[in-house]
Amino acid sequence: MFKKMLKSHDYSIIGVYIFLCLFGLVMIYSSSMVMAVQRYGYPADFFYDKQKINLLIAFAAFLFFAFFPYKAFRNKKFLITMTITAILALFAVSAYGYVGNNAQSWISVGFRSIQPSEFVKVSVIIYLSAVYANKQAYINQLNKGVLPPIIYLVFVCFLIKIEPDNGSAVITFLIGMTIILCSGMKFKTLMKLAAIAGGLALLFVPFILFKFDSIVTDNNMARITGFLHPFELAQKEGYQLVNSYLAIGSGGLKGVGLGQSVQKLGYLPEPHTDFIMAIIAEELGIAGVIIVIGGLSYLVLRGIYIGIRCRDPFGSMLAIGIASMLGIQSFINLGGMSGLIPITGVTLPFISYGGSSILVLSIAMGILSNVAMFKNYDEKYKHQKVEDKPVSPSIPLNYENNFR
């Protein structure tokens, strides 16, 4: 059976995931070596070495979740423990966390620092997928089937927002909305939800206007004005975006060559995290951009395909939720560095430097790989057994049950 499981893995997902991680490792070294020496006084390979350790831990996590049966996440005790842990972690950040990139979203755990909001993304995917899979019999009943998970989603996003980590809050909320749209609710139920959300938004408008200065911070306004008028504020709020444009424009079609970026020499403040794609565009040109966007697009589309083909509602929503996380986070990062949307400080999946980010993404990819494995196993072997088994006239053959 183990050999059959190995044959059933989707190795295209695994291959693209590993390639993007290794490609990101090379670009982290290239983009961070000057900054590590000039800004921090570290060795040139400091961030590269740290990311190697992060990747080793992440690969181990990926392998574990790639073989751990995803249906175990549907267990009630596990779901309760996971949701309580997520909420406590966010409260701990508010009380004991420290500020990084203008947000109190980090907390020290022994010799490492973690960002709980990253782990909450996966916990929200698992929780919403499990709850709505369990509620399929009454999925269109607002009070019993629809609203309780949404209340949890909104509460978690609120806790992330007040850190403040607007980027992670938006990503988490949009992931949740994607799973809700794919949960099997009727269009009429979704319209009722939209009407309730619209009504609540109108009720909160006076409060938002009254507390506007508290809700929208100076840092938020700076990012908006920098987005709207980057060249007019090139030495202030628009500094990052203008230098990102210069990096992209300098790269052109062919790029200036690996390791030859000018913008990483102190012009782009975060060349190895938020703006690593600008360095890729400058050094490797359009080819480097196509490699990254192509790899990310493949994982997103493959995740959606697996979700559509999976006959288990829980596995289907897990796959689509993970695909949406990759797609939304990639769009927000690329949109920020290219001027399509305001800069949010969100990292580029698999490419940017960051321990919490690569660990969470690897866990998510492990779960997606496991869903794909069970889907393929059911299609290859269970279906084959059903076809080969003689059908007794007195016992009807129920294909639906066999696939389940």
TrEMBL record:
Coiled coil: none annotated. It catalyses: [GlcNAc-(1->4)-Mur2Ac(oyl-L-Ala-gamma-D-Glu-L-Lys-D-Ala-D-Ala)](n)-di-trans,octa-cis-undecaprenyl diphosphate + beta-D-GlcNAc-(1->4)-Mur2Ac(oyl-L-Ala-gamma-D-Glu-L-Lys-D-Ala-D-Ala)-di-trans,octa-cis-undecaprenyl diphosphate = [GlcNAc-(1->4)-Mur2Ac(oyl-L-Ala-gamma-D-Glu-L-Lys-D-Ala-D-Ala)](n+1)-di-trans,octa-cis-undecaprenyl diphosphate + di-trans,octa-cis-undecaprenyl diphosphate + H(+). Its EC number is 2.4.99.28. The chain crosses the membrane at residues 12-33, 53-71, 78-99, 119-134, 146-162, 168-187, 194-212, 275-301, 313-332, 352-374. Pfam families: FTSW_RODA_SPOVE (PF01098). It comes from the Bacteria. The keyword RNA-binding does not apply. Peptidoglycan polymerase that is essential for cell division. Belongs to the SEDS family. FtsW subfamily. This is Probable peptidoglycan glycosyltransferase FtsW. The lineage of its organism: Bacteria, Bacillati, Bacillota, Bacilli, Bacillales.
